[in-house]
Write a structure and sequence with these properties.
Blueprint: E1 6-11, H1 15-25, E2 31-37, H2 41-49, E3 58-59, H3 62-66, E4 73-76, H4 83-92, E5 96-99, H5 107-120, E6 124-126, H6 134-144, E7 151-159, H7 174-177, H8 181-184, H9 186-196, E8 202-210, E9 241-248, E10 253-259, E11 268-275, E12 279-283, E13 288-295, E14 298-302, H10 312-326, H11 334-353, E15 357-358
Parallel strand pairs: 1-2, 1-4, 2-3, 4-5, 5-6, 7-10
Antiparallel strand pairs: 7-11, 8-9, 8-15, 9-10, 11-12, 12-13, 13-14
The chain binds nicotinamide-adenine-dinucleotide (NAD).
Nicotinamide-adenine-dinucleotide binds at residues 11-16, 37-40, 43, 62, 77-80, 82, 100-101, 127, 129, 184, 227-229.
């Protein structure tokens, strides 16, 4: 174990850093946040205060933060369109990068990130917090033990009745977000399924997107709608519902559905995997994770009693620290990010063309 504290710079001191990432740093003897950057300086300063620090370690311009001597890593929590811009510059300076999802807003940008990581030999890790849920960890092992047999199809969704984040702000402005719920929520659930299925390569996507709630001011009923700052009279040029179908090189398929607003009963997110020996599903309404299998000639439903774990965001960041400090093998590889953005980009293209798009 390397006893030197990692020196980290935070870029983007908004909702996700203060609501989730911060718990990986506070009271952590292995790391030290040495600089905070936000284009709104007061946000950097109020975040620094939580660490007992003041404006002397705060920056408005991320390039100034990247010039700090001896920085081991940056944690990027800015709007989506800045992920690759900042990540590439950091990697070129030999700084390890942890970046929020989605990886990037285009395949071209995701590829630049992968190339910069490869060239620098530094770690590039993008947030995949759902891989660190108790049921995800259990399933990964269950599958590795061969208990699900061959997994041949999956279904996942995250649908909200009313839960548009930061309406009018960067979340709903395509140029800054890259898209609506497909890129925002899809990246979580699609990644989880692909990772559990053993990372097959996507080869084709068919999708449809809709935007029906841009002018609705009905109150949100999702706690997740609190992310991002809303802007009256701002832009809303992204979808609010995406439906689709993905094909993989090994014959596996996946049905997907993501909404920020749609007339469904309530918010739900789930994954469902079907294997030849067992199936599995998670259900956020009943808070149940079930395995569907058979024993002695009868079908059996199994509800594992899983331990409660710390938040996935914190566990993902702790893993990143372990990788750069102790050389632990990373759970995430940049190629997975490129493949993820290939799916998202192909889905938007398919929705535009009205036909399946090959990757
Ligand atoms: N993993 C998750 O569960 C999860 C949840 C929410 C958001 N996110 C992701 O986290 C990122 C941030 O989302 P958020 O909800 O915190 O948004 P936010 O708007 O609350 O925070 C973004 C911050 O970045 C700052 N910023 C903008 N441009 C900047 C620049 N050029 N340099 C420095 N700072 C800049 C903004 O002022 C703001 O404080 C997004 O990519 C989003 O997709 C992930």
């Amino acid at each position: 174990m390397n006893s030197k504290k990692l020196k980290i710079g935070v870029i983007g001191c908004g909702g996700i850093f203060n609501g989730a990432h911060i718990y990986a740093y506070l009271d952590n003897e292995d790391v030290e946040v040495v600089a905070f950057c936000d284009i709104v300086l007061s946000k950097a300063v109020s975040t620094a205060k939580k660490f007992g620090l003041d404006e002397s370690v705060c920056y408005e311009n991320f390039e100034d933060l990247l010039n700090i001597e001896g920085l081991d890593a940056v944690d990027i929590c800015t709007p989506n369109y800045l992920h690759s811009v900042i990540a590439v510059k950091a990697l070129e300076k030999g700084i390890n990068v942890f970046c929020e999802k989605p990886d990037a807003v285009s395949v071209k940008e995701a590829q630049k990130m992968q190339d910069a990581a490869q060239k620098s030999g530094k770690v590039l890790m993008v947030m995949r917090n759902n891989r660190y849920n108790n049921y995800s960890k259990f399933l990964k092992q269950y599958i590795a033990d061969g208990k699900m047999g061959e997994i041949y199809t999956a279904r996942c969704a995250w649908r909200r009745r009313r839960g548009i984040p930061g309406k009018g702000g960067w979340f709903t402005t395509k140029e800054q977000s890259g898209g609506g719920p497909l890129i925002d929520l899809g990246v979580h659930m699609i990644d989880l399924c692909i990772w559990l299925m053993g990372n097959p390569k996507p080869v084709a996507v068919s999708a449809a997107t809709y935007s029906k709630f841009a002018n609705s001011d009905t109150q949100a009923d999702s706690e997740h709608a609190k992310f991002g700052e809303a802007k009256a009279d701002g832009t809303f040029d992204v979808e609010d519902l995406a439906m689709g179908f993905i094909r993989f090189d090994n014959g596996c398929t996946m049905q997907i559905e993501f909404s920020w607003a749609s007339n469904v009963e309530r918010e739900i997110h789930f994954i469902e995997l079907r294997g030849t020996k067992a199936g599995a599903s998670t259900d956020t309404v009943d808070k149940q994770f079930k395995i569907f299998t058979e024993e002695n000639g009868v079908t059996v439903d199994v509800i594992p009693n899983l331990p409660k774990l710390e938040g996935g965001h914190k566990l993902n960041l702790l893993h990143f620290f372990d990788v750069i400090k102790n050389g632990k093998k990373p759970d995430f590889e940049p190629i997975q990010g490129v493949n993820m953005v290939k799916i998202l980009e192909a889905a938007y293209k398919s929705a535009e063309l009205g036909e399946e798009v090959k990757i």
